[in-house]
Design goal:
The protein is an alpha/beta fold. It contains 19 helices and 23 strands. Helix 1 crosses helix 9.
Length: 544
């Protein structure tokens, strides 16, 4: 087994996840099979109960795992589907060790961080590496070196390094901040030096240092980092600001990072080809068209809360040679009297709780009445039904029982299996399941097949008792769950593009395989802005 361990220092948000995903992509494009693990030192067992303002988006996997958003980066860059075992948290590790202690598995031993916690961490890493069949496993350690909660994980990785035979089989990549002081215009290495010093005190010496900076690291700065941090100058890699995260692998490749890793780890690569990836990045950076799409949410002050939506729009835009400018709209602001901006499309994404729901309903109504291309996701799907019931079907007071238990028209209600739930974590309808599409629908044309598999994360559903009256008034439910007949997709045929889904298509969008509903939305936004003939006459086969 071979491992690349990605750690971070100085502060969070330096792009460890993108660094890890980029390394995985570069190795994969050389024919070296890779997988990725994210370690999150928080005590939560998973990210499912976290407010997006604290940790960003909750990324849902096929198996229902609610994980850190970096697993989304891994899936998108590596074009793979991961499992909940690829996300290791303090909560998962300690729960397993405590349960074993209660069963008596430790035969009366005093259970301690070393060796019991560290052994469990290593067991989980090795299990994923073995079962994936990958030649190289990328392991990203969340947080920063020096955080007290990270200590058991770093100690476990120090042990793993020795146990697998050292640098040939286990390489440490340390990401640090190289700030530029504007007053003097100088790149500063001291934060990197102190971060590496702290890592060494734990017993880990980095093999590669990735310097996060505004601009490319100057050669003299690279020399200084190499000298003070005891790495070759070829192992000091710049990670400057770029216009798209998908350019980062190209930046690393240009500096020789892939070749350095291959040589150091004695890997056997095949001929690599970055041409398709370069073309993808070029399409993002130099679009032929531009559209504006509003995301009307309740966590818009932290854009990472909707990161999969952003990336799905990027993928669709690249396919259609279109730059998508996202306009962030806080739903509560609409309730306070703010107007909906001039846009060519609207997304109402998921969320939980009553706050902002009436603002989202206002946005849905605006899109429907003004024929603005619209896509509703999860809660956006449910509120689309509420809006239509109130304003088209005349059901005054229609609502979801999540927000009004006494609504006279509960067009959205709690899933039956959720009624006796006592614990909130990992108890929703989660993960991928099959949906059967109506062949006479726009959604079917977008997917090109009758049965699709998409990921879910919800407790409430459309109340089937109201489906007939909604459809008699023009709304069409064109997708139902294969196993239970739950309403999954709706569309309004009279509009240019008015679609909503209970599932989350954004989670399965990939750079070369955009999520069909986002591709449909961006295509409709192009038509809305430029005219009906643009897809046929200008974009052609790129829009199929």
């Amino acid at each position: 087994m071979k491992f690349v361990i990605v750690t971070g220092g100085v502060l969070s948000g330096l792009g460890k996840g993108i660094t890890a995903a980029s390394i995985g992509l570069l190795l994969k494009l050389r024919g070296i099979e890779t997988t990725a693990i994210k370690i999150d030192p928080y005590i939560n067992c998973d990210a499912g109960t976290m407010n997006p303002y604290q940790h960003g988006e909750v990324f849902v996997l096929d198996d229902g795992g609610e994980t850190d958003l970096d697993l989304g980066h891994y899936e998108r860059f590596l074009d793979c589907s991961l499992t909940s075992e690829h996300n290791i948290t303090t909560g998962k590790v300690y729960r397993e060790v405590i349960e074993r202690e209660r069963r008596g598995d430790y035969l009366g031993a005093t259970v301690q961080v070393i060796p019991h916690i560290t052994n469990e961490i290593k067991r989980r890493i090795r299990k994923v590496a073995k079962e994936s069949g990958a030649e190289v496993t990328i392991v990203e350690v969340g947080g920063t070196v020096g955080d007290i909660e990270s200590m058991p994980f770093l100690e476990a990785l120090r042990q793993l390094h020795r146990e697998v035979g050292g640098n040939e089989n286990c390489v440490f990549v340390h990401t640090t901040l190289v700030p530029k002081i504007s007053v003097v215009g100088e790149q500063k290495t001291k934060p990197t030096q102190h971060s590496v010093k702290e890592l060494r005190e734990i017993g880990i010496s980095p093999d590669i240092i990735v310097g996060r900076c505004e601009e490319e690291l100057l050669y003299d700065i690279k020399k200084k980092i190499a000298l003070f941090c005891d790495v070759p100058i070829d192992a000091v890699i710049s990670n400057p600001n770029v216009s798209t995260i998908y350019e980062v692998p190209l930046v690393f490749e240009r500096q020789g990072l892939t070749n350095y890793l291959i040589k150091k780890m004695k890997l056997q690569p095949k001929n690599g080809d970055l041409s398709l990836w370069r073309e993808f990045v070029e399409r993002i950076k130099n679009p032929k068209y531009r559209v504006r799409i509003a995301i009307v949410g309740k966590y818009t002050y932290l854009h990472d809360s909707y990161i999969s939506h952003k990336e799905a729009l990027t993928h669709a835009g690249a396919k259609l040679r279109t730059g998508v400018d996202i306009v962030w709209v806080e739903a509560e602001d609409l309730e306070g009297g703010a107007s909906i901006p001039d846009v060519h499309g609207i997304i109402v994404p998921g969320g939980f709780g009553k706050r902002g729901t009436e603002g989202k309903i206002m946005a849905i109504r605006y899109a429907r009445e003004n024929n603005v291309p619209f896509l509703g996701i999860c809660l956006g799907f449910q509120l689309t039904v509420v809006e239509y019931a109130r304003n088209v079907c005349g059901m005054e007071g229609a609502n979801s029982t999540e927000f009004d238990e006494n609504t006279p028209h509960p067009v959205v209600d709690l899933l039956p299996e959720q009624r006796d739930i006592k614990f909130m974590g990992a108890t929703m309808r989660l993960g991928a399941s099959d949906i059967v599409l109506d062949e006479n629908s726009l959604v079917y044309k977008l997917y090109g097949k009758k049965v699709i598999s998409e990921r879910h994360r919800h407790r409430y559903e459309v109340n089937n008792e109201y489906v007939d009256v909604l459809e008699r008034k023009g709304l069409r439910f064109v997708g139902r769950s294969k196993d239970r007949g739950l309403m999954e997709v709706l569309e309004l045929p009279s509009n240019i593009f008015f679609v909503a889904s209970q599932f989350h298509p954004e989670f399965k969008s990939r750079p070369f395989k955009p999520a069909p509903l986002y591709l449909g939305l961006v295509s409709a936004a192009l038509k809305f802005k430029y005219g009906e003939d643009i897809i046929v006459n200008e974009v052609g086969n790129d829009g199929d």
